[in-house]
Specification:
about 0% strand; mainly alpha; 4 helices; about 55% helix
């Protein structure tokens, strides 16, 4: 399984927060935004598992899980 580089991860996090800010009136969650922009070949392993943070409300937990499972360590 491929994982994101640290730079790719930072770019996706920035983009996800931007998406949340743009759609704040409709309640777009950070976990939802981030999940939607992770490349398919990376998130497929975790889709519909306890690592699938699409519906999570806790942004800190989303970020922690994202870096633990989806991103390469330095």
């Amino acid at each position: 399984m491929n994982k994101l580089t640290q730079q790719e991860a930072q770019d996706l996090i920035q983009k996800a927060w931007h998406m949340v800010a743009e759609h704040h009136l409709v309640g777009y969650r950070f976990g939802q935004a981030l999940w939607n922009i992770i490349p398919n070949d990376i998130y497929q392993k975790y889709s519909c598992t306890d690592k699938d943070f699409f519906y999570w409300q806790d942004s800190d937990k989303v970020t922690e899980t994202f870096f633990k499972y989806f991103v390469q360590e330095n």
